[in-house]
Design goal:
Keywords: Membrane, Transmembrane, Transmembrane helix. By secondary structure, this protein is mainly α. The chain contains two helices and no strands. The radius of gyration is 16 Å and the shape is elongated.
Length: 69
């Protein structure tokens, strides 16, 4: 059973944007820690938080909708 939403593209954008932000955040954090770049580490951590936040918002929104009957 597949749930249909009127704003499917927004949800897809949030999911892909969150995953991309998490991946990029992990890479930037690893590079920043390895080469001791404080700014790069900070940006990486911010991207990790942003990506996790987008995924959490998507999950919360999906669970708030009533189940299909």
């Amino acid at each position: 059973m597949v749930a249909q939403t009127s704003d499917g593209y927004v949800l897809l954008t949030k999911k892909l944007g969150g995953l991309f932000a998490i991946i990029l955040g992990c890479l930037l954090t690893a590079v920043g820690v390895t080469f001791e770049y404080g700014g790069t580490t900070f940006v990486g951590v911010l991207l990790l938080i942003l990506g996790a936040g987008l995924l959490v918002l998507k999950i919360i929104r999906r669970n708030r909708e009533p189940p299909l009957t």
